[in-house]
Amino acid sequence: MKISDRLAKRFPTIAVSFAVITLALGACDKGPVDWRGDALAVAMPASGDEGSAPVDAHLVLRPDGSPALQAIPAAPSAPNDSAACPGSFRTSASSSTEIYGVWWSRRDAGRAVLLASRSDDAGGTWMPAVPVDTTDRGAVGCARPAPAIAADGSSGYVHVTYFLDAVGGPGVFFAHSMERGELFHSPVPIVYGGRPSATSVAAADSVVVVAFEDPNSERAQIALAVSRTWGHIFTPERPEASTGAPEAEGPLVALRKGLVAVGWHGKDRAVVARVGTLKVN
Q: Given this model, what pLDDT does residue 55 score?
């Protein structure tokens, strides 16, 4: 829709307002996901307690497109780090033997560094830790959300998301490795905001989706960031995925053949998820 140049010159305020409205409507049309419906309860893994997801579980999409929680086998060992924050160690496998881990490690003055490591023998032994992000300026020590990690066997990339009080301000950040976890590239912000936020990340070749607790919303809600370039660039939208939920925290995300599932914990700690189709553009 377009207004004439003559009207734009006579009524510049109207022209500007019209342009703003048009851009806003266009942004709504360009959301990255076409949702298939409302969120529904997710089937729990056999080892999980009814009504909550265990820490060692992740969201998956079945072949029929329905979401479910799947238990993550515990690694037989963890990287050697006496300063590791308890409960912060997270793992993701790119194959039956190649496992990646990420965790917070305490530093002086309440700060922490985010470290990662790779195991080539299914978690029996671990390579020396490498830094993912060393820019923390917070003072909360280990009292922070655990990071999230996704090792993608298709691309060979390792993706990590986390909340950090960085030099430029606190927020949700993303970093990835294209070198089998031996080097992580400079982190990029997903969104800035002051409230510590849990994150989740999933990857399928060139597509990377980050689900995170919105650090700026008045109530606990889950938002999304989408990359179609292996995590090098994210689209500008940060749409809310938990629309209609009175409270949503503890995000979970999964990808499968053009579908995305986003899950979260509600007030009663039950896990629900909604499924959508990722738009091509």
A: 55
What is the 8-class DSSP label of residue 151?
Answer: E
pTM of the model: 0.86
How do residues 118-148 score in pLDDT, each as one tens digit? 999 999 999 999 999 999 999 999 999 999 9
Which position has the token pair 């377009």? 2
Query: For the domain bounded by 34-278, which CATH number is listed?
Result: 2.120.10
**CA–CA separation, 99 vs 125, rounded Å?**
10
Task: List the one residue out of 261, 236, 259, 238 whose CA is nearest residue 251.
Answer: 261
- Please answer whether residues 79 and 126 qualify as being in contact, where contact means their C-beta atoms are separated by less than 8 angstroms: yes
Report residue 78 as tokens. 């963890």
Per the CB < 8 A criterion, the answer to whether 261 and 62 are in contact is: no
CA 161 vs CA 10, 62, 114, 156, 245: distances in Å:
50, 24, 10, 17, 23
Per-residue pLDDT tens digits for 195-229: 999 999 999 999 999 999 999 998 899 999 999 99
- How do beta strands 169-177 and 188-192 pair? antiparallel
Q: Rounded CA gap, 187 and 168, in Å? A: 12
pLDDT in tens, 57-89: 899 999 999 999 999 889 999 999 999 999 999
Strand partners, 106: 112
Domain ranges of the chain: 1-30, 34-278
